[in-house]
């Protein structure tokens, strides 16, 4: 079985400050890890994914994520937050050899002006 | 590509009625997925097609739920005898196995179902 934990329901950050949204996972075998963002009444938009190789993955809109195998974590980061980054962020995992994603409960990011 | 589209965007129905949702994947994507999302939760996997074959179904998918992808293009999800617990956002996603391992799933805007 595979699972994802997003320990924070909400993260608050001031515009211009760095942000981190945390994610830990559990999966058998090698993980494929994803971050998606959801704006109100919209579907999920893909941000970035980790498959293999460099532990630091860069994605859309200036976001990046760091894969840490020993801590089974895949935290989402951005050096300088924008008010427009305010949204619901989901981490997801997929075990190699499988096709379906398992999502965390999501973390609401609120960036204040 | 025009993205994944879903129809309708909103559906209000009375308990006991049947509803059907449609999903049009990104053209040439051979994989199609259905997920359900309730308030405060992440999407939960329901079922998955590769071309026209339904390869996996979640235990969440009761006998009242059926999905088809008759020609390997669009898909329909039908819920029979709806219950209030079926109220949720139903999300469709598509991907291409030809992009290699860990193909990315792209999501549609969802169909919000309200069962009264």
Number of strands of chain B: 11
Treating each run of at least 4 consecutive H or I residues as one helix, how many helices of chain A?
Answer: 0
Biggest interface pair, residues each?
A: A-B, 24 and 25 residues
Approximately how much beta-strand content do the residues of chain B carry?
Answer: over 45%
What is the CA-CA span between the terminal residues of chain B?
36 Å
Fraction of residues in helix of chain A: under 10%
Quaternary state of the chains: heterodimer
Give the overall shape of chain B, derived from the CA principal axes: globular
Amino-to-carboxy terminus distance of chain A: 41 Å
What class do helices, strands and sheet pairing of chain A give?
mainly beta
**Class inferred from helices and paired strands of chain B:** mainly beta
Shape assignment of chain A: globular
Instruction: State the helical fraction of chain B.
Output: under 10%
Based on the model shown, name its key terms.
heterodimer, A: 113 residues, mainly beta, six-stranded mixed β-sheet, four-stranded antiparallel β-sheet, 53% strand, B: 116 residues, seven-stranded mixed β-sheet, 0% helix
Structure, described:
The complex is a heterodimer of chains A (113) and B (116). Chain A is mostly beta strands. Helix content of chain A is 0%, strand content 53%. Chain A has no helices and twelve strands. Chain A is globular and about 45 Å long. The mean pLDDT of chain A is 94. Chain B is globular, with a radius of gyration of 14 Å. The model of chain B has no long low-confidence stretch (mean pLDDT 93). Chain B is mainly β. Chains A and B meet through β5, β6, β10 and β11 of A and β5 and β10 of B.
């Amino acid at each position: 079985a595979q699972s994802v934990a997003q320990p924070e329901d909400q993260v608050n950050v001031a515009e211009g400050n760095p942000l981190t949204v945390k994610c830990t996972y559990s999966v058998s075998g090698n993980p494929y890890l994803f971050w998606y963002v959801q704006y109100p009444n919209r579907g999920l938009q893909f941000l970035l994914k980790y498959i293999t190789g460099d532990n630091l993955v860069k994605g859309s809109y200036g976001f990046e994520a760091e894969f840490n195998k020993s801590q089974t974590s895949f935290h989402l980061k951005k050096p300088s937050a924008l008010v427009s980054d305010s949204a619901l962020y989901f981490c997801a995992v997929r075990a190699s050899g499988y096709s379906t994603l398992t999502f965390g409960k999501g973390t609401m990011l609120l960036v204040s002006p | 590509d025009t993205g994944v589209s879903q129809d309708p965007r909103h559906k209000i129905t009375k308990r006991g009625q049947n509803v059907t949702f449609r999903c049009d994947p990104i053209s040439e994507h051979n994989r199609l997925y259905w997920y359900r999302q309730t308030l405060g939760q992440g999407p939960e996997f329901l079922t998955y097609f590769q071309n026209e074959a339904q390869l996996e179904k979640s235990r969440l998918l009761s006998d009242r739920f059926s999905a088809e992808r008759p020609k390997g293009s669009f898909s329909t999800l039908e819920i029979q005898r709806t219950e209030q617990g079926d109220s949720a956002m139903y999300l469709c996603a598509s991907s291409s196995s030809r992009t290699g391992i860990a193909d990315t799933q792209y999501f549609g805007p969802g169909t919000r179902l309200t069962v009264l």
